[in-house]
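FORM 12-B: Structure-to-Sequence Request
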């Protein structure tokens, strides 16, 4: 994704494409998408929701809280324009999607992505990691004498991680090509 705001917009559109959600539930699901090590606060999510409302991508409605609170909850849902925007993003591919964050975000919403785009994104990620593997291998091969053994171990670990992801990507690509 080109920016954090675009990445956040895509994730919110993707979650709302599955059905209307209130703010707390959106945040909870966003944490699942972004992973446990990246906290998203309401001060990040709500301004993005407001911007998306201003662009007519989402709309809000109010519903009674089912809990002890008497406050009503704001429920967000996609508009027709929001559905089109999500489909438009899902149908595109870009070198940004081959990088770690962009790939993870796109992969989280791979189901609505057309198969040819899924394959292109997987192939792009594979090329990117193959380049990274070559660089890591070169660094490891050219390790000067006397360098800290833990740095060497870290480089070896990074290389092995890249190789594992490359093997996984090759399997994913093969599987995607076989799928009807």
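FORM 12-B RESPONSE
SEQUENCE OUT:
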């Amino acid at each position: 994704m080109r920016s954090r705001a675009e990445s956040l917009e895509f994730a919110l559109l993707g979650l709302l494409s599955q059905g209307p959600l209130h703010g707390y539930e959106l945040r909870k699901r966003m944490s699942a998408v972004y992973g446990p090590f990246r906290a998203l606060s309401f001060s990040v999510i709500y301004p993005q929701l407001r911007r998306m409302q201003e662009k007519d991508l989402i709309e809000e409605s109010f519903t009674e809280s089912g809990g002890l609170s008497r406050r009503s909850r704001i429920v967000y849902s996609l508009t027709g324009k929001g559905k089109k925007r999500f489909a438009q993003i899902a149908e595109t591919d870009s070198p940004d999607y081959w990088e770690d964050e962009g790939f993870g975000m796109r992969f989280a919403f791979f189901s609505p992505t057309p198969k040819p785009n899924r394959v292109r994104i997987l192939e792009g990620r594979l090329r990117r990691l193959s380049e990274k593997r070559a660089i890591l291998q070169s660094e490891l091969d050219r390790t000067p004498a006397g360098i800290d053994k833990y740095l060497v171990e870290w480089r070896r670990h990074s290389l092995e991680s890249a190789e594992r992801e490359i093997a996984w990507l090759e399997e994913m690509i093969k599987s995607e090509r076989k799928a009807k």
